[in-house]
TrEMBL record:
The lineage of its organism: Bacteria, Bacillati, Actinomycetota, Actinomycetes, Streptosporangiales. It holds the Pfam family DUF5063. InterPro entries: DUF5063, DUF5063_sf. This is DUF5063 domain-containing protein. It comes from Sphaerisporangium corydalis.
Length: 176
């Protein structure tokens, strides 16, 4: 079973690092006019990793104990850069839990994207310390508890923004 867990941890770690790298580049302006569609790709790809965690059996740690990883990197600079880059489309409305809480809540894409990154980077701390099972436990727990919701909400908002840029076009008028 350890080999299966180890292989899954390797896959999730790759997705997590790719998301962090892509998010950092896009926050830094590398996306240009394609920032929104590229953010959609990043969130969709990391959501694939989340769905794999959701489909896997529960990861249970020996002694039900998570060893310390040390301080996580500060991602506020990435969040702030994303907020500036997203500007007027950073704020959006979302229903947090469509089964338990149907109240519409204000969200920010920059906060959602950074929250996903924070949970992923914490798991990477375990992974890089040679503790793939702890990394999987954290990623799975935080997927169900926080980052899965933030990624899903961000993906819906980003998909809507990309759709609006493609579909909400002004019809050209022709003169005869």
């Amino acid at each position: 079973m350890f080999d299966e867990w180890s292989a899954l941890a390797d896959r999730i770690a790759t997705h997590a690092q790719n998301y962090l790298d892509g998010l950092t580049r896009l926050a830094g302006g590398e996306g240009g006019d394609a920032t929104l569609p590229m953010l959609l790709v990043e969130v969709a790809q990391v959501s694939l990793a989340g769905s794999q965690l959701g489909a896997a059996q529960d990861v249970i740690l020996q002694g039900n104990f998570e060893p310390a990883t040390g301080p996580d990197p500060d991602l506020d600079g990435v969040r702030t850069a994303l907020a500036i880059r997203l500007g007027p489309v950073d704020d959006y409305a979302e229903v947090f839990d469509p089964y338990k809480d149907t109240v519409v809540t204000a969200y920010r894409l920059s906060d959602d994207l950074a929250a996903v990154a924070a949970d992923l980077v914490h798991g990477l701390g375990h992974y890089r310390a040679g503790r793939p099972l702890e990394a999987l436990w954290w990623w799975q727990y935080s997927y169900f508890n926080t980052w899965g919701n933030h990624a899903g909400a961000a993906m819906r908002a980003l998909q809507a923004l990309v759709a609006h840029t493609r579909l909400d076009v002004v019809e050209e008028t022709t003169t005869a």
